[in-house]
Amino acid sequence: MKASVFIGTSLDGFIARINGSFDFLPPGGGESHGYEEFMASVDALVIGRKTYETVLAFAEWPYGEKPVVVLSSSPLAPAPGGARVEHMSGDPADVVAQLEARGIRHAYIDGGITIQRFLQAGLIDRLIITRVPVLIGTGVPLFGPLERDLNLRHIATREYLSGLVQSEYIVES
Q: What average pLDDT does the segment 21-30 reach?
């Protein structure tokens, strides 16, 4: 199974403010920067509980009928009608094994702690990071401590009229 990250950060590397807000990101993602095409390429999402709770507050469920696996050791709030949400816990390798056994070929990994855990486990294949031209000073970092260096191969960098800069990397073994 291939696991990819598609995420926006402040220029100083934060995916959210300390309080969980990401009001510094452009409304609706700003101009088109490949998110819809990326979403069309994934079979399922794997997100953390905090990300799930944040998304529940949105006016509309953003993932349509795509299966969403929420990683948490705690019970989850009910999913909105029409959402395909499953509660799962365990280490990233076990989660990947379960998804592979179901025929999932490409998973979108989202949420700060979830991304960090999957990176630490060596299970992320591709990173697409869109930097927003704003410094927020402090917040929830995209990356955390690693036990070893992770080498990345740069694939492309794209710039957008709004000032967004998106870089894509392959994580090398």
A: 82
